[in-house]
Write a structure and sequence with these properties.
2 domains; four-stranded antiparallel β-sheet; 22% strand
Length: 328
């Protein structure tokens, strides 16, 4: 990346104390493994006896204005990687930087907003009071804070619920107020740990749309999730972490494309036309017609179409938009 990276993680290792000898790696000499980004050999010491390696030599970069998704099973090291970047845990080795500044230094966090997986809020406060509370923690006050509070309630779609206590908010509404507090100081980087955990499909879609809106406004977003469909809808680049190691990384389109297959989508094709296409394919040496059939929507889209769009009378419009999305 030619410009300064929003996030740069280099050879990150994090070991925690284990609960038994069985969890510790066997002792021995240092191991040599390829560097994840440069491909050069790096000396990686095994964890000390009694320690468990949660993150193992992870390196990644995130460009400004990009949405990057870190995905993996539970316990794979996603949250630990984020916490190391935020300075919440100290790396055993390796470095993390945010817009060129060491992320272990407090001043690097001025450009960061963070939504943890299970945020805790004071349930007796209203939405407005919650945002103002976090704004004051960031040094904001007076008319600027009041205006910022109204802007954020509008951005996250809670302007009508701003005066209600959080004790009456749904899980999806709490996540959106969490996003609002993460944005209160207008950061350049937003870090989201499982932003749609426990949220129903409608609330999940609202959060997804909000993340895309933030990208349009120039924010950089680093999120981790195990909900793959949502990651696929919003992310530009994706890293797959497994057992603490980054096993795959790249542009989403490159990762999910099947290189030796070509998709052709036709609208209102007649059976005769389909037969002729199949005949042409059979005439070409080495070409195999894998399947034919109707493109499928996703279960999430179907659910939203039959609930939210139906209530608002937008079912036919949603089907038309969906058809256009599937066109080349």
């Amino acid at each position: 990346m030619s410009e300064m990276a929003a996030v740069q993680i280099r050879n990150l290792v994090k070991d925690f104390r284990g609960s038994s000898k069985k969890e510790s790696a066997p002792g021995g000499s240092a191991l040599e493994v390829p560097g994840p980004v440069t491909g050069t050999p790096l000396e990686v010491l095994p964890p000390a006896r009694g320690m468990v390696r949660a993150v193992d030599n992870v390196s990644l970069e995130i460009a400004p204005g990009e949405i990057y998704g870190l995905i993996g099973p539970n316990g794979s090291g996603k949250s630990t990687t984020m916490k190391a970047l935020l300075g919440l845990v100290r790396p055993s080795s390796g470095t993390c930087s945010i817009f060129g500044r060491d992320s272990s230094k407090v001043d690097s966090r001025q450009d960061v907003g963070f939504l943890p997986e299970n945020p805790y809020f004071y349930k007796h406060l209203s939405g407005e009071e919650t945002i103002r509370f976090y704004g004051r923690l960031c040094g904001m006050k007076g008319a600027a804070l009041r205006q910022r509070t109204l802007e954020l309630l509008d951005l996250v779609g809670l302007e009508e619920a701003g005066k209600r206590r959080l004790g009456g908010y749904s899980k999806g509404m709490l996540q959106r107020i969490g996003l609002a507090q993460a944005l209160v100081q207008d950061p350049r980087l937003l870090i989201l740990d499982e932003p749609t955990a426990g949220v129903d499909p409608i609330g999940s879609r609202q959060i997804r749309d909000l993340i895309l809106t933030l990208k349009e406004r120039g924010f950089t977003v680093f999120l981790c999730s195990h909900l793959l469909e949502q990651v696929q809808e919003v992310c530009d680049r994706v890293g797959i972490i497994h057992r603490g190691s980054l096993v795959k990384e790249g542009r989403l389109e490159d990762l999910i494309s099947i290189e030796d297959q070509t998709e052709i989508i036709l609208r209102n094709a007649t059976p005769g036309l389909l037969d002729r296409i199949q005949d042409l394919a059979h005439q070409e040496a080495g070409v195999e017609l894998v399947r034919t059939g109707h493109p499928r929507t996703t279960l999430e889209r179907l659910f939203l179409r039959e609930t939210v769009q139906r209530d608002s009378g937008k079912v036919s419009e949603e089907r038309e938009d969906e058809s256009k999305e599937q066109s080349p």
